[in-house]
Amino acid sequence: MGLNARMLREALMALLNFKRRETAAPANGQLEGFMSGYSIEVMPRTAEKVEDFRDLLPKGTRVYIAHIDGTEIGDMVATAKRIAGEGFEVMPHFPARSIADKTTLADWIARYQGEAGIDQALLLGGGIPQPRGDFHSSMQLIETGLFDQAGFKRLHVAGHPEGNRDIDPDGGDAMVMEALRWKQDFTTRTDAKVAMATQFAFEAAPIIAWADRLKAAGIEIPIHVGIAGPAKLQTLIKFAIACGVGPSLKVLQKRAMDVTKLVLPYTPADVLADLAAHKAAHPDSLIEQVHVFPLGGIKSAAQWITENAGTAGLPAAQAARG
Fold first, then answer.
1. Which domains are seen in the chain, by residue range?
2. InterPro entries from the xrefs (predicted)?
């Protein structure tokens, strides 16, 4: 065998061996328990590509519907109705900066309730830099009292383990912490269940440190940790930069420098294993659940969870067949 042929063979074997290490393994108890009750996010246009969510997701999975600026409320409500009709809990986004006024907010709430039976929502500032109307923050949406009047049972807010320069342009977290203290106070004066769904990250350490810091500061809001599902490395880096992912971005940058990993899709195996181990060792941690961002597609994300999280990833249709 010539030198070039031998080098090519060795390179291929290295790739195959690496791929075997990343292939789904039977879920350990920690990961299975940690993934139990996970939530996932879709958009109307991505939901249209799924014939039946029962073929992908466990029964009762909470499905967030992301409201991207410019999406018609009718499309959002129709998607919510369809997914709820398939037996899932639906949590639509309410992006404050995209909502014109209190009348519009009341109309959205009424339509979600009346047409789709929705009683939970994720309240957030939204992805556009300037407000289109009267609101710029989730706190303002809460202060209208409309969700309380409508009897919403669960309200989630956004969390930022690695900071948010839209809120704190100087790179600190003074404004974020002030907002969290306000939201902590809100939890004491409402019957709604409140939790934080966080921006995705690629390393467990910054998330754990952030959760510990919040708890030390008297914040007791449960954390649903954002995790990016399997995707091409280039796709993840693009989303990470656009969404302002902080220190854990270096995990992707380091991976991009390794040719044996560059050609393989990223999976969240390492970060989930570390988080699951931490939760098992520290059951009183604010970290409560996992929220999946299917950046590489909802089907690939759901399949990876099914293959790696044991019964926590068993799709509803498969469970029904026994």
1. 28-321 (3.20.20.220)
2. FAD-linked_oxidoreductase-like
